[in-house]
């Protein structure tokens, strides 16, 4: 087979959506459960920064939430909009960047969430703080910011690897992701993702994306949060997204989901 096509995988939203959609229902159940437990506001308005293909936008809108989201990738936004329309659902979607978004003039939210390590796309402390500040301004006092990201073990010198397959409408997508240890000075982790797509007509497509994300240990994340006085840590979970399973905010495990309360 020919060498994989080099592409930003977010330019192929359908394949992204197929590969990540399996967890959507469980993640939405989790968001609703932690909101019921920790949220101190009365409304049901939710914002998803970097909403991607809109899998969670659609799910939350279908559950009756007033739903907003933004992303910088036009293909993702277009995919999300079309699907909402096809499903007879509505959400307010726009083009924006996590590091500098402001929702002034739009509504204020009861819940903001940013799962699956998307926050790590903010490559500098300044950008990460910009996102926290935008989120704090967007939330009502007592609202929640649910933030999920993979932590990095600085002692691990080998690349980590994940591979999984998902199917929809005769399309099979296998995702092969490799993450290298971060460079100590920049904290940036090189990543490579390969998608192998088998289409209903029997043809195969292989595409590859290379990028970098900002790494975090638990103490680096704590330090960042201390620089932004707007949030308090209310609970910590992991990517199993089991609301009954409370974890500690430390480096004992690699996939952390924080429930932050807007002061
Ligand atoms: C891993 S996907 C997550 C999508 C969605 N939140 C979900 O849970 O499926 C990451 C998304 O972040 C978007 N993105 C990356 N950097 C961004 C930035 N600085 N501002 C806004 N969106 C960004 C990408 O276009 C992509 O859609």
Instruction: Tell me the distance between the termini.
Output: 55 Å
Content-based structural category: alpha/beta
Please give the CATH architecture of the largest domain: 3-Layer(aba) Sandwich
Largest sheet: 7 strands, mixed
Kindly report the CATH topology of the largest domain.
Rossmann fold
Across the major sheet, the strand order is 4-3-2-5-6-12-11
N-to-C SSE string, H for helix and E for strand: EHHEHEHEEHEEEEEHEE
Our count of domains comes out at 2
Number of contiguous helices = 6
Question: What's the mean pLDDT score?
Answer: 96
CATH superfamily of the largest domain: Vaccinia Virus protein VP39
**Distinct small molecules:** S-adenosylmethionine
Helix proportion: 25-40%
Instruction: Tell me the fraction of residues in β-strands, as a range.
Output: 25-35%
Q: Segments where pLDDT lies below 50 for 5+ residues?
A: none
- Give the CA-based shape: globular
Radius of gyration: 18 Å
Number of strand segments: 12
Structure description:
The chain is of the alpha/beta class and 263 residues long. It has two domains: 9-152 and 215-262, Vaccinia Virus protein VP39 (Rossmann fold, 3-Layer(aba) Sandwich), CATH 3.40.50; 153-213, S-adenosyl-L-methionine-dependent methyltransferases (N-terminal domain of TfIIb). Helix content is 25%, strand content 35%. The chain contains six helices and twelve strands. It has helices at residues 13-20, 24-38, 55-62, 74-86, 125-138, 218-226, and strands spanning 5-6, 45-49, 66-71, 92-95, 109-114, 139-150, 160-168, 171-179, 188-198, 204-214, 231-238, 255-262. The strands form two sheets. It has a seven-stranded mixed beta sheet with strand order 4-3-2-5-6-12-11. Strands 1-10-9-8-7 form a five-stranded mixed beta sheet, covered by helices on one side. Strand 7 (160-168) and strand 8 form a beta hairpin. Helix 2 (24-38) packs across helix 3. The longest helix is centred in the first third of the chain and has 15 residues, at 24-38. The protein binds S-adenosylmethionine. S-adenosylmethionine binds at residues 10, 20, 48, 50-52, 55-56, 71-73, 76, 97-99, 115-116, 118, 121.
């Amino acid at each position: 087979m020919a060498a994989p096509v080099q592409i930003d995988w977010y330019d192929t939203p359908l394949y992204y959506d197929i590969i990540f959609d399996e967890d959507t229902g469980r993640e939405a159940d989790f968001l609703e459960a932690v909101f019921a437990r920790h949220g101190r506001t009365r409304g049901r308005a939710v914002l998803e920064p970097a909403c991607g293909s809109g899998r969670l936008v659609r799910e939350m809108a279908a559950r009756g939430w007033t739903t907003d989201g933004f992303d910088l990738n036009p293909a993702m936004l277009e995919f999300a909009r079309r699907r909402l329309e096809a499903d007879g659902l509505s959400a307010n979607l726009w083009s924006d960047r996590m590091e500098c978004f402001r929702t002034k003039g739009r509504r204020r939210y009861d819940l903001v969430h940013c799962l699956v390590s998307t926050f790590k796309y903010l490559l500098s402390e300044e950008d990460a703080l910009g996102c926290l500040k935008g989120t704090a301004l967007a939330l009502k006092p007592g609202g929640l910011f649910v933030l999920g990201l993979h932590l990095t073990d600085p002692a691990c010198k080998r690349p980590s690897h994940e591979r999984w397959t998902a199917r929809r409408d005769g399309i099979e997508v296998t995702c092969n992701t490799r993450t290298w240890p971060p460079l100590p000075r920049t904290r940036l982790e090189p990543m490579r993702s390969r998608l192998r797509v088998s289409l209903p007509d029997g043809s195969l497509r292989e595409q590859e994306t290379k990028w970098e994300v900002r790494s975090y240990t638990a103490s680096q994340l704590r330090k960042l949060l201390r620089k932004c006085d707007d949030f308090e840590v209310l609970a910590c979970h992991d990517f199993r997204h089991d609301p009954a399973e409370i974890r500690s905010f430390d480096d004992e495990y690699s996939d952390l989901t924080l429930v932050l309360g807007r002061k």
